[in-house]
């Protein structure tokens, strides 16, 4: 309720008797096609009993004089309202269902923002994942991060983004769960148990899916801000789903004093501009993370396994060569740039680190791991990169092998053999 409405209602809200205004509103709420509207209006007018004065008989207060509405006046009612969807078409406000609609099966993982369970919908039998939001320690009401997570998931409905089904509640106000489709694997776990890295054709398929999800989010002004392999889920049909929007936010919104928080993106996947203290950053931070994920898919291990920020910066400098005024003009104006001792210039070591990737593949990787955020490739551009249209072509997701799902409690029998088509 707006302040105005509150003030009108007075200090104690009176019981909401239906006012005439409400009744009119209710009548308007009957869904009516714009084309039918004029005939309905005419019918209403026709159905009014004729009176000498032309006044309507719809008076609910016998003592009050009947309102004087002429036929001409009724027909000239503002036409713009017919373009406003009737209230029945607005999303209904309904209470959240109870978590008891689901049968708890097993817990999948306890992450930084919540516990994730596997559960069964008692009504449909569907297997789902329930992420319990951590609200117990909240002193300031429902956290904005949780609202952003739900909002981002609802905004980014895409084949390669995990599907949110509903939000359910438990017995207390601190028990709130996001219900999602259950996806068998996360890429981090999968990469650890696979005996050999993904094939080039598989990496291409996974990258295309990841890029199309990221492009979709960015088109809708959503920054993920925590892209990494443990937040990429993969089902047994070779489809990736981006998950964990716990750090996501809209980037078009005005930001408060101090800019955007630097407490984003898990260290190994964090873009250099955030490491160097930038408080205005954008979609390019996600693209750096995508570059780290691309490298990890090829290497089968994380690219920058640094223990701290300083070590990470020096690892980046070592791999890519230190930034220069040409490769990153803004570098020297970043808040922490003065605290960093730049190493002597040397040639990048990307080729040595990725000896088997094609020239096009290396080009895409270096365009993702580009220092200058302005120059870093966007998701939409990356989707059109020649790497994806050269041989070996992206493998059809149906041809991906299936794996035992650790999240569903299925056991890997060592040595685990992953049988797949050899191209
Ligand atoms: N929809 C899902 N289906 C299956 N497993 C999931 C699902 N969502 C999350 N998980 C598992 O739970 C882990 C933690 O979930 P995540 O949303 O990343 O929470 P956190 O914010 O705590 O990192 C993921 O890494 C993944 O292994
Ligand atoms: Mg996570």
What keyword list fits this structure?
binds adenosine-5'-diphosphate, cyclin-dependent protein serine/threonine kinase activity, ATP binding, Phosphorylase Kinase, domain 1, binds magnesium ion, 13 helices, transferase, 2 domains, three-stranded antiparallel beta sheet, globular, 423 residues, serine/threonine-protein kinase, 11% strand, alpha+beta, five-stranded antiparallel beta sheet, kinase, 10 strands, disordered N terminus, Transferase(Phosphotransferase), domain 1
Residue stretches low in confidence (pLDDT < 50, at least 5 long) are 1-71
Radius of gyration: 29 Å
CATH topology of the largest domain: Transferase(Phosphotransferase), domain 1
Strand content: 5-15%
Please outline the major beta sheet: 5 strands, antiparallel
**CATH-assigned homologous superfamily of the largest domain:** Transferase(Phosphotransferase) domain 1
Q: Which molecules are bound besides the chains?
A: adenosine-5'-diphosphate, magnesium ion
Organism: Phlebiopsis gigantea (strain 11061_1 CR5-6)
Family: Belongs to the protein kinase superfamily. CMGC Ser/Thr protein kinase family. CDC2/CDKX subfamily.
Keywords: ATP-binding, Kinase, Nucleotide-binding, Serine/threonine-protein kinase, Transferase
Domain Protein kinase: 102-388
Structure in words:
By secondary structure, the protein is an alpha+beta fold. It folds into two domains: 83 residues, Phosphorylase Kinase, domain 1, CATH 3.30.200; 215 residues, Transferase(Phosphotransferase), domain 1, CATH 1.10.510. The strands form three sheets. It has a five-stranded antiparallel β-sheet, covered by helices on one side. A three-stranded antiparallel β-sheet has the order 6-8-9. Strand 2 and strand 3 form a beta hairpin. Helix 7 runs antiparallel to helix 9 and helix 9 crosses helix 12. It is globular and about 65 Å long. The relative contact order is 0.10. The N terminus is likely disordered. The site of adenosine-5'-diphosphate has 22 residues, from strand 1, strand 2, strand 3 and strand 5.
């Amino acid at each position: 309720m707006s302040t105005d409405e509150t003030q009108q209602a007075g200090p104690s809200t009176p019981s909401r008797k239906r006012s005439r205004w409400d009744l009119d509103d209710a009548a308007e709420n009957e869904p009516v096609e714009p084309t039918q509207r004029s005939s309905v209006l005419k019918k209403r007018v026709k159905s009014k009993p004729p009176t000498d004065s032309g006044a309507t008989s719809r008076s609910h207060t016998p003592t009050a004089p009947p309102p004087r509405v002429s036929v001409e006046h009724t027909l000239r009612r503002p036409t713009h309202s017919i373009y406003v969807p009737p209230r029945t078409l607005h999303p209904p406000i309904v209470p959240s269902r109870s978590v008891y609609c689901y049968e708890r099966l097993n817990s999948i993982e306890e992450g930084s923002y919540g516990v994730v369970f596997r559960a069964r919908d008692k009504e449909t039998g569907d297997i789902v994942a329930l992420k319990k939001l951590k609200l117990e320690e909240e002193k300031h009401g429902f956290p904005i991060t949780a609202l952003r997570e739900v909002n981002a998931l609802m905004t980014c409905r895409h084949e390669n983004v995990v599907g949110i089904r509903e939000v359910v509640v438990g017995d207390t106000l601190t028990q709130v769960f996001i219900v999602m489709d259950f996806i068998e694997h996360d890429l981090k776990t999968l990469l650890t148990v696979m005996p050999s890295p993904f094939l080039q054709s598989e990496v291409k398929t996974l990258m295309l899916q990841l890029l199309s999800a990221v492009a979709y989010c960015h088109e809708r002004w959503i920054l993920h801000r925590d892209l990494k392999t443990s937040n990429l889920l993969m089902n047994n049909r070779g489809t990736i789903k981006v998950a964990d929007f716990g750090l996501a936010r809209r980037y078009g919104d005005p930001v408060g004093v101090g800019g955007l928080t630097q407490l984003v993106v898990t260290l190994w996947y964090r873009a250099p501009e955030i490491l160097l203290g930038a408080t205005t950053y954008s979609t390019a931070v996600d693209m750096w993370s995508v570059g780290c994920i691309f490298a990890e898919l090829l290497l089968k291990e994380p690219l920058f396994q640094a223990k701290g920020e300083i070590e990470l910066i020096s690892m980046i400098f070592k791999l890519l060569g230190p930034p220069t005024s040409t490769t990153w003009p803004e570098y020297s104006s970043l808040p922490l740039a003065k605290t960093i001792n730049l190493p002597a210039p040397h040639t990048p070591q990307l080729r040595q680190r990725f000896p088997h990737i094609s020239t096009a593949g290396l080009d895409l990787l270096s365009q993702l791991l580009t220092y200058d955020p302005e120059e870093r490739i966007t998701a939409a551009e990356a989707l059109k990169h020649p790497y994806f249209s050269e041989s070996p072509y992206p493998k059809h997701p149906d041809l991906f092998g299936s794996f035992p799902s650790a999240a569903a409690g299925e056991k890997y029998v060592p040595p685990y053999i992953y049988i797949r088509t050899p191209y």
